C-alpha cells in the first residue's frame, strides 16, 4: 500500500494547477503529519519485534537471536517511541536512534537503509535477511523528517 500523499501548500504554479507533494501523510486523514502509533509502529511490529521485543533476544518461535541493543517492547507503542526518540544507540552511543526532523542523523533510518557504516554505525542492516519496502522506508523517512511525532 502506497503512503498517502497530500497537496503542497503555497502558491499555484503558473499553469494554474497546484503542485503536489510526494510526502506521505497519516493513514487516517489527508494532510495530517505522520505519527508514530498509527503510521510507524505497525511497520516496526511486523518487521522488528521478532528480535527487538525484549532484551533476552528470544521472543518468538525459531532460533534465538543475539541480544538486541534496541528494545521496543511488545504491545506498547509509547514504550517503543520513548526508546527511539533522542536516545543513544546501545552499540553506537555516539549516534541517536531518532533525531526528530533529521533523517540524515537518525541511526534507525541508517540501519534500515543499510547505510549505518557511513555514519559510524556498527553491525548489519535491519531487518536481518531483508529490507523494508520502498513505501515503508518512505513512511519512516517522512515521519522522522516531519518531526517524529508520537
Amino acid at each position: 500500500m502506497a503512503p498517502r500523499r497530500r497537496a503542497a501548500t503555497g502558491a499555484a504554479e503558473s499553469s494554474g494547477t497546484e503542485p503536489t507533494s510526494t510526502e506521505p501523510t497519516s493513514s487516517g486523514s489527508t494532510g495530517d503529519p505522520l505519527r508514530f502509533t498509527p503510521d510507524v509502529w505497525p511497520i516496526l511490529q511486523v518487521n522488528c519485534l521478532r528480535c527487538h521485543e525484549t532484551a533476552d533476544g528470544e521472543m518468538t518461535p525459531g532460533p534465538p537471536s543475539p541480544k538486541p541493543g534496541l528494545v521496543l517492547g511488545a504491545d506498547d507503542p509509547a514504550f517503543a517511541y520513548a526508546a527511539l526518540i533522542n536516545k543513544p544507540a546501545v552499540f553506537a552511543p555516539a549516534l541517536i536512534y531518532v533525531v526528530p526532523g533529521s533523517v540524515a542523523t537518525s541511526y534507525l533510518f541508517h540501519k534500515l537503509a543499510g547505510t549505518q557504516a557511513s555514519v559510524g554505525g556498527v553491525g548489519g542492516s535491519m531487518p536481518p535477511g531483508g529490507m523494508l519496502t520502498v513505501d515503508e522506508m518512505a513512511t519512516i523517512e517522512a515521519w522522522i523528517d516531519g518531526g517524529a511525532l508520537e
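The CA atoms of residues 80 and 105 lie 19 Å apart. The radius of gyration is 17 Å.
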